[in-house]
Write a structure and sequence with these properties.
Number of helices: 14
Structural class: alpha/beta
Order of helices and strands: HEEHEHEHEHHHHEHEEHHHHEH
Number of strands: 9
Shape: globular
Radius of gyration: 22 Å
Largest sheet: 7 strands, mixed
Distance between the termini: 25 Å
Strand order of the largest sheet: 1-3-2-4-5-6-9
Strand content: 5-15%
Length: about 450
């Protein structure tokens, strides 16, 4: 993406609305080209200014949410100050984040809010696409999941530690994702100022950011699509699910015989033999290459972070992140203690309670609400963030359950996306590149422009 395409500012200085787009891990502005072009096609240059952030391009995304957020904030402030000097001050702002970019965007808006920008600029739309709001820790049992949680968290420098929630952010003694979701933080205060908050989450095959974390939920009804009935919005069928009633369990069907199930599983195994053979040969080599490259990139990332920390202009960003040190801080410390006690990888799902109903009467997997009682124990949090019996609760960490509660209390429009044409849907949801398999993502972008972006 050329510089002129990356920053699309009204030369006549008539537009008073700025939209900022933030890319994800290993990304660059070109990944957001389709979003930017579609946005421009619907809203001409004299209506909307567009900034596609570039300061975290490529391996700079290794440098962590805090560093990335400060860089993006500097980009935004530069544009705002430039337009203000030209007598064309921005009056409205929207921020859109893809993947890791959604977390970086949440950090950046906290800084903007703390510096008083939202007192003179109205926050309109905040949207994330396939953003891992709860991190990427795999809530599954088995050696492969344990290996991924341990290996992945140590191969992406600061960003890896933060995405797997094993970091300690500044003097909070908590992961940065927990701080981003703390009700007393500048980040939640900033998020709550936006007129519209929405997210788009793939229901299947997002191998970078699974459904539970992008949809901010403790349940996953889409593990077995044959067991549920999915309802779509007629105008966007069969891609965008109906947010009011997206899914329901199918009536129990007669169980297949043992021989039928054995035959089916045997055929599936035979079909996958060539794939498994290739993986056995490639995984050792790929692991060595990945580990060496990750070590090099982590070293470079640490150097960049040190340079960034010594840079000028950061004093305005080194501010108190929590606006009070009361109940929520104590609750956060307690949650951390429980998390350390339960650090041994557990099961896929939490055990069901003994026939009792949860206090939460949520009717869809996207509108789970937790009770307002801030004294809830971690176990209570787990049980009240899931639906009663239709779909079991994932074995998330205590910190993740608390993130769900806090983020849901802010309020989101949650749009669930069913992409089928590709085996890995993470890039398709925003049409990260032009390829035939990504056509379904264009429906997602159209829905966002029609239903989720307010001028």
């Amino acid at each position: 993406m050329e510089e002129s395409e990356r920053t699309s500012i009204d030369p006549q200085r008539k537009a008073d609305h700025l939209c900022v787009l933030v890319h994800g891990l290993w990304g660059n502005p070109s990944h957001l080209a389709y979003l930017a072009e579609s946005l421009r096609e619907k809203h001409p240059v004299d209506e909307l200014n567009i900034l596609v952030a570039k300061s975290n391009s490529g391996t700079y995304t290794y440098d962590g949410i805090e560093t990335g957020g400060e860089r993006v904030t500097q980009e935004i402030e530069t544009i705002l100050q430039e337009l203000e000097r030209d007598g064309a001050p921005i009056k409205k702002i929207s921020v859109i984040g893809y993947s890791l970019g959604g977390l970086i965007a949440r950090y950046a808006i906290g800084l903007l809010h703390s510096k008083g920008w939202f007192e003179k600029i109205q926050p309109i739309n905040f949207t994330t696409f396939a953003t891992p709001h709860l991190g990427v820790r795999t809530p599954l049992r088995g050696y492969h999941s344990q290996l991924w949680n341990a290996f992945g968290s140590r191969t992406l420098s600061a960003s890896g530690r933060q995405l797997f929630t094993i970091d300690t952010f500044r003097d909070t003694k908590r992961p940065i994702l927990s701080v981003l979701a703390d009700p007393d933080s500048i980040f939640i205060r900033a998020l709550s100022r936006f007129k519209n908050r929405s997210l788009y989450a793939n229901i299947i095959n997002d191998r970078s950011a699974p459904y539970y974390t992008t949809a901010i939920t403790a349940t996953d009804p889409f593990v077995d699509l044959d067991a549920v009935t999915i309802r779509y919005l007629p105008k966007y069928s069969p891609i965008i699910l109906d947010a009011d009633r997206p899914v329901a369990p199918k009536a129990s069907q007669e169980k297949q015989s043992f021989y039928t199930r054995l035959s089916s599983s045997s055929q599936g195994l035979l079909y996958r033999v060539p794939l498994y053979t290739a993986l056995i040969a490639l995984i050792p080599v790929a692991t060595v290459v990945w580990t060496v490259n990750s070590g090099i990139q982590s070293f470079r990332s640490n150097k960049r972070i040190q340079v960034h920390e010594k840079g000028s202009g950061l004093d305005g960003y080194r501010i108190p992140l929590l606006l009070s040190n009361g109940t929520n801080t104590a609750r956060g410390a307690m949650s951390g203690a429980f998390r350390r006690m339960n650090s041994t990888p557990g099961q896929d799902y939490l055990p069901e309670s003994s026939g009792e109903e949860t206090p939460n009467g949520a009717t869809t997997p996207t509108t789970d609400k937790a009770p307002p009682d801030n004294s809830s124990s971690p176990l209570e949090l787990k049980r009240t963030t899931s639906r009663k019996a239709e779909f079991p609760t994932l074995a998330l960490s205590d910190a993740q359950f608390e993130m769900i509660r806090n983020l849901d209390e802010v309020g989101w429009e949650k749009h669930l996306v069913h992409i089928r044409d590709v085996g890995h849907t993470h890039a398709a949801i925003i049409v990260r590149m032009q390829k035939p398999g990504f056509e379904e993502g264009k429906v997602v972008v159209r829905h966002w422009l029609d239903e989720g972006f307010e001028m």
